[in-house]
Amino acid sequence: MTDLAHEGDVTAEDHHDEHESLGMDARKLGMWVFLSSEFLFFGALMTNYLLYSNRPGLADPYPGTIYDIPFTSVSSFVLLMSSLTMVLAHAALERDDQHQTRTWLFATAALGSIFLGGQVFEFYEFITHDGMTLTTSPVASAFYVLTGFHGLHVAIGILMLLSLWGIGHSQGALSDKRGFNVELVGLYWHFVDIIWIVIFTVVYLLSTS
Amino acid sequence: MTTTTERPGVVEEAPPTTTIYRRPKSTEGFWGWVTTTDHKKIGIMYGYAAFFFFIVGGVEALLLRIHLASANSEFLTAGAYNALFSMHGATMIFLFVMPASAAFVNYLLPLMIGARDVAFPRLNALSWWAFLFGGIFMYSALFFGTGLAPTGVENVVGNLAEGGRPGGLNFLADMPDGGWFLYQPNAGPDFSPGTGIDFALLGIQILGVASLVAAVNFIVTIFNFRAKGMRLLRMPVFVWMTMVTQFLLLFSLPIIAIALFMATFDRNFGAMFFDATGGGDPILWQHLFWLFGHPEVYILVLPAMGMVSEVLPVFSRKPLFGYSAVIFAGAAIGFLGFGVWAHHMFATGISPVAQAAFGLSTMTIAIPTGIKIFNWMGTMWMGKLRFSTPLLFAIGFVAMFVIGGLSGVTHSIVPSDWQQTDTYYIVAHFHYVLFGGSVFGLFAGIYYWFPKISGRMLGEGLGKVHFWLMFIGFNLTFGPMHWLGLQGMVRRTWKYDPATGLEPWNIAVTVGAFIIALSIAVFIYNWWSSRRRGAPSGLDPWDARTVEWTVPNPTPVYNFATTPVITRLDDFWHRKYTTDDEGRAVRRPEADQMIADLEYDGRNPKTEIHLPAPSYFPLLLASGMPFIGWGIIWHTTTWGLGMVVLGVLLIVSGGIGWALEPLEEAHEEDHPHDEADEDEETHETEGASDVGRASESADTTEPVETS
Question: What is the radius of gyration, based on Cα positions, of chain A?
């Protein structure tokens, strides 16, 4: 009738830290959980683009005909390199090399800004040169909203990197606690890069005709 | 044994001077509530706000019912009618049931897993404020919105939003009027000019931010902040259902966020996503919306299922029948919930294969749901039932949910669904699952856990009056809608002809709605009087099973004087009861003394307890969101752009202050000192590295008995 048979003892494995039942820092776990949601955010945007990318009868210009693949390849490479500098920043902090940490954080933000500048230039070219705007066709709307939201994510990442860099400067050193933020921002930054790899492949390379 | 009811004194610490903002110090009074990061206060605020919106949504429903009680009614203009049914749905879903569930989760989740707070107390405050501002933003449409009729139909009788015939309550037509689902392109720029719809699109976006932040917070809390011995399969079912709900939110909210953004871009910036004339897909919105919308249905009902799973065992004096089956059924409902969305779209002309597939997947939902229903009945079977108000509402939940579930299965049969689409039969169905389900479950929870927030019992006599009035009123309101729907009464219809013979049942429905309103009035009076004069509850008024009842009522600010250690499922029950030779539960002789000790020890912590400090920044950050929303709506004007700038400034300044404010979560004791703040510390006690927290000092001079 009752399940008293289930009475158990507190075993060794129950005696882990109350605050980390999974043995993982709560903020790091929170970042992973958040990023899992972000995948669906971009997934929905990309599905949207794919839905319209093969649709006949849409108004010109079709984005696939005006992509400048060499240019976007270079800016994609710049963004990928920023992941490397992000790793270097994190590694420098692990060694407690404050100067190098700040240098690589700034380098990451700088590379991200170059990528963002490239995107602004690309949008400018598409709008003024090729005449493709948000209001041209559903596929153009999908392109701008997808890449625009990715750019917004990069911009927020740059803001976080510069904040860490500024805190490191004004307080002389990034402490262990703030240092952990380097890892959190790093997770976010790598996520944004990975999403760009998918966008570049699916949106640019596969739909160029 | 004497127990003291005094709270230990709260020692305020000097605010750190490194931050550029002054730190809030008050934990009492108005500013104490505004700056709080305490999950219990946030839960209570969520609860009151949700109840306020419940009243608002209820008044909207009553206006609709007055209008529909007579054929060819002129009580409401068509514009006002459209706005009212849209806002009734949106309010009840986004501003009542979701935040009411969030109120319970906030208050109970840390208590049920033996934690002092959620993982991120300030993010929790951000969720609450974002929800409140989202709700205010949506209703600001009443004052700032415009509900224009589509071009070319201004003179159609009933489209009275602007320049039309004066009519009943036409000012309400300025609110969003595209249904809670905001189907595009109907709610797009061509067919819904004016700004009403934008308030719904952006308001739900803000509410989504609130729910997403809360989902991350609660998931981390459940995974990482369980007390010693609280293994996953020892957690109360409510915690499990909360976890499933938060994962549903986590994965469905980004999809609706995208859909809302697309519609916002269409309406405000000329994008073409849903514009059929430019090649846009008019069905795309429905896919995206229901890919969120169907999980949303389970987001609304799963917390209530968790509450009922807590209430039934206590009042049956038996463990929950099939604990793990109930949990796995809940998880299965969560998974399946992502694979059934197109059953909302059988009438849109999707392919026969898709119709068959989604019909079948919809039928499979009945399996885990049935498992739960039978487990709840198995829990009550042969139990010593105590028919207190919480049990009445819980049984009401099970019974009404079965009816709603069965009519739901009829929708999975595609030809049948074609007949029922957009009729009152659908309205009857989802009110049986959402009102008969969620709302009855929520009231079971309110009566059951009221002592935890007040230390008093909600009146039983009035509670039973409330239950029976609501039960009768509910069935009188929504039962006849089945026949109305099957007789062909179309949903969202402004007028019907008296020749259809639909009027008698419509009158019955309206009478039922007013009986529900009466029952809510009884509840409000009961709540109001019980807060002041209710019988003191003591520590364990219901002879409960779970760990939240091992702390005094009302819950002390620190929750647990000493963090509990959990040794089994239903730990508290097993500390009170053992079994005799025939397997019957027998109360342990020392149980009463143990409860007295818990009462005393719970009020007299032996060690200093650190709690999250209050903060202004969640409020500051959240307050920027509605300004950005208003700015987007009026982006063509200068002051509109100014509002965007103001909103961004509020968010950025809130974020900067937040980042520079020393970390203070009660759960960070084990982290090293923050170097930047070390100089400012005025005290050096172990684990007190988090500067600026209110700390609870223990009164250790009194002799303390331990069991």
Answer: 22
